[in-house]
Amino acid sequence: MAMASANLTVMIAAARKAARRLVRDFGEVENLQVSLKGAGDFVSNADRKAEETIRADLMRARPAYGYIGEETGEIDSEDGMHRWIVDPLDGTTNFLHGLPHWCVSIGLERKGEIIAGVVFDPIKDEMFTAEKGAGAWLNDRRLRVSGRRDMSVMLFGCGVPFAGSKHLPKFLRELAHLMPQCAGVRRNGAAALDLAYVAAGRFDGFWERGLNVWDIAAGALMVREAGGLLRDLDADAADPVASGMMLATNAEVAEPLLKLLREA
Ligand code: IPD
Ligand code: CA
Predict the structure, then answer these.
(1) Ligand 1, CB cutoff 6 Å, lining residues
(2) Are strands 126-131 and 135-138 parallel, antiparallel or unpaired?
(3) Which CATH architecture has domain 151-263?
(4) Which pLDDT band holds residue 73 (cuts at 50, 70, 90)?
(5) Which of 96, 162, 193, 236 has CA 20 to 30 A from 210's CA?
(6) Is residue 143 annotated as involved in ligand binding?
(7) What is the pLDDT of residues 106-144, one digit of tens each?
């Protein structure tokens, strides 16, 4: 990355520390797969412990900042400005199944705007970072969204709604509509990494409904800082980070892609 700010340095250290522990726990998951009970409780515990260490590290470094995380809920800020947004383990289902694709995601918001983000995949040793105005980075490499315009060569990431989700029928129509027109669609199972991959140009775009702010805060900044666009899938005026109805892609294809998905 460029010169990391003091806040970004705190975020990177917290993500690395939590990830070290998660990697150890991930090694255990394989052994637990064979038991009848499975690894469910073990993984919820690993998730919770990871969030506890991240929250403690962040709050110790910046006691006046607020906090929201997937596992432990919200703390109001004392400075009325800043908030940490944390997903200690994004890609929980992958983790539970021994699939090596998951990450730690930490975002920082200031007056309602995301100003820094970290998405760390310790298995691939990929540290994605972004700061407002300073670009998006993968380790030491500056990121840029893909420049493709031709839908037929584009590769998209998506999220498949869970069984019983109200978003499922619409998603299936979108998939049926988009698949024949593009090069492929992937469901990798960690939304924070999906967005980081859009920033890196690995995916030409990503869409998913019903996401939570901790899934997307850090990744959203990466996409913007890599020159990409974020749009609400359904409502032009809405902020997709707040609504969780996320489309992320490059500027060339945003309009046609949005139209195609809305037609479905
Ligand atoms: C989930 C993952 C998944 C996405 C879900 C999220 P979790 O987060 O990001 O890719 O499809 O919507 O809830 O539960 O693994 O932290
Ligand atoms: Ca998540």
Answers:
(1) 70, 87, 90-93, 159, 189-191, 208, 211, 215
(2) antiparallel
(3) 3-Layer(aba) Sandwich (3.40)
(4) confident
(5) 96
(6) no
(7) 999 999 999 999 999 999 999 999 999 999 999 999 999
